[in-house]
Structure formats: structure tokens, C-alpha cells
Amino acid sequence: MSPSIPNNFSPDLHLQYYVKPTNLTKSERIRKFLWDPDEQTVLGRSALSWSKIGMFYLIFYGVLAALVAICMWVFFQTLDPRIPKWQREESIIGTNPGLGFRPMPSSDNVESTLIWFRGTDRENYKYWAESLEEFLEVYKTPGLTPGRGQNIYDCDYDRKPGPGQVCDVEVKKWHPCTQENNFNFHKSAPCIFLKLNKIYGWEPEFYNNTRTLPEEMPTSLTEYIAGIAANPANHRRLDTIWVSCEGESPADVENIGPIDYYPERGFQGYFYPYMNSEGYLSPLVAVHFKRPRTGILINVECKAWARNIIHSRADRLGSVHFELMID
Q1: 36 HSE (CA, 13 A, CB side)
Q2: Are the beta carbons of 287 and 261 closer than 8 angstroms?
Q3: Which burial class, exposed, middle or buried, applies to 123 when counting CB atoms under 10 A from its CB (0-12, 13-18, 19+)?
Q4: What span, in angstroms and rounded, lies between the C-alpha atoms of 166 and 280?
Q5: Which helix (H) or strand (E) holds 242?
Q6: How are strands ordered across the β-sheet holding 259-262?
Q7: Long-range CB contacts (< 8 A, 24+ apart) of 107-113?
Q8: φ and ψ of 224, to 5 deg
Q9: What is the secondary structure of 119-153 as a DSSP string?
Q10: Rg of the chain in Å (alpha carbons)
Q11: 256 closest CA partner among 203, 221, 300
């Protein structure tokens, strides 16, 4: 039996589905993709299709951004801008402070620790003096450190700072290690400044008993501590992180000459613990090399002394090395 043909069958309508598509050139196909006037589409999508997909991505990225913002807000609620989350043993810094020196060589030679100058030539030692001026500027001008000013306290061993207060570091009084005196570079007897790295909450355990001083401590330092301990009125001054600087080899010891320390031979204990108070500045020690031998390289090693400071040259802990070369 032959299939029946619908009464409304039209050969012409049927044939239009088999009409071969018009051959278009490449440029015409591109133009039609960009804008098809017959279908009223842009890039293959109608206005309704573009509005739907645009609304979808707007909502999707809006919700995503809101989730990220909420997560960040919750995360920052666990942080304090002044108190680190990981402290001392739990932190990367650890519990053993390093010792640094100023002035440092130029950034062009970042690996160098050599301080080389000619004391009779102002232009030659100018870089070193100006580097120290820049480093000490925040100590001389309170307004350069945020929050430093009203909370500066005149500290002493029997007058420790209260909450929110910071101790003053009076570098202007450390003659001959002052800017006005060119930090004594012009006399070939330079002043080098030492600074202990800051570790939040770290408290030094002082060598304040002459009977328990370590054997490796330099004789000049043990004698200095004994001289302070001999006077009962100076007992509080024993709460100090002591500092020693000496030549590394016997030849260096012979060439380094006598050394003075300002304001005293160590970092005063009342600066600790460091609690990140507004305006806090680390204590400094100015090391004055009074008569170093000229024309020869002198290797210098400075150490900070406390019971909980370990010395390691390899890891640069508790000590610092630099060289002096004076023409």
C-alpha cells in the first residue's frame, strides 16, 4: 500500500528545505557573524540571549566576589595590626636576634661588608657619613616615625616605659659620634653603629652576675661588667645586652686599636621587650674605633651578649662581621 499524501502538502514548501545554502565569501561570513540582519543577531546571539548570559555572569561573579570578601573579612578578624599571629618559636624569625651595623656599603655591592675610605678626603668619606645621617634622621626627628612624639619617655634603668610609651635614643649627645663631627671619619677614627634586630615579645636574659659570665666573653668586657658590679648603686645597669667588638685574628686584634662605646657598652635592658608600640625605635650602640691602623684591612666581629643569644657566624645570629680599610 502506498503512503497517503496529506491534503495540505505543497511541493514548493517541501522543496525549500533542500535548497543549497548561498555560498558566501570569507569576509561575508565574518560580517554575518558579527551582525546578521536576517536573524538580528550579534556574534551569533540575539539580544535576549546576550541579556540572559550577561545576567548569569553578573550574578555568578557578584556572588563569588561576595564570598571572597566575607572570607577575607573573617580572616582579618583573627589578626591584630600590632601583634603578630606567630611569635618567637612559632615564627620564621625565631628567638635569636641578629646584629646589624651601619653604615652599609652601597646597594651596587650588596654582598660587601667593607667600609673603605680615606679620612683626609671629604669627598671620599662623604658617602659613609651621609649614610649614617640618613639612618639616624628618624632618631633625631620624632615626626618622621608614625606615632612618635607625645609618647616619648625619658627612660632609665629605674624608670621603665609604661604601656604605649617608648624610650628616647639621644644620638645627638654621643660625641664624637655625631653628625656635626662627621662621625669622626675625617680623623680616620670612624664610628660604626650597631643595632639588634627586633623580635616581638622577646625578653633578654641578662648576664648580670659576674660569677656566671661565659668563658668565651672577651676579657675587656668581663672587666667592664665587674667594674659596674663593684658599685652597688649601679646594680640595675647590669640589666644590659652587652656588646663586644674585636679583631677576628691575632693580627686584626693588634691593628684594631682601642675602642669606645656610646652611650655605653650595650643595649639598655629597659628597651625590652619589644611590643611594637607606636613610635618605637631600636636602641643603638656607637662603636668608636679610636686609632685603627691605616693602610691595612682589619676584620672586625661584634657580638651581642645575653644568656638567650646564640652566636653563629654561618647563620648571622647574635653577631656581625665587617671590614675596615682606612687609607
Answers
A1: 12
A2: yes
A3: exposed
A4: 5
A5: strand 240-247
A6: 99-102, 191-196, 284-289, 259-262
A7: 113/321, 113/322, 113/323
A8: -65, -45
A9: TT-HHHHHHHHHHHHHHHHHHH-GGGSTT-STTEE
A10: 37
A11: 300
**Non-local CB neighbours of 92 within 8 Å, separated by 6+ positions:** 86
Which of 68, 135, 124, 74 lies closest to 100, judged by CA?
Answer: 135
- 255 in Cβ contact with 293 (< 8 Å): yes
pLDDT digits (tens, 9 = 90+) for 249-300: 999 999 999 999 999 999 999 999 988 888 889 999 999 999 999 999 999 9
At 185, the amino acid letter reads F
Q: In the structure, how many helices (H) and strands (E) does the chain have?
A: 6, 11
Task: Extract the residue ranges of the chain whose pLDDT is less than 70.
Answer: 1-22, 89-90, 143-149
The residue behind cell 583573627 is 78
Grid cell for residue 227: 667594674
State if pTM tops 0.90.
no
What does the pLDDT read at residue 52? 87
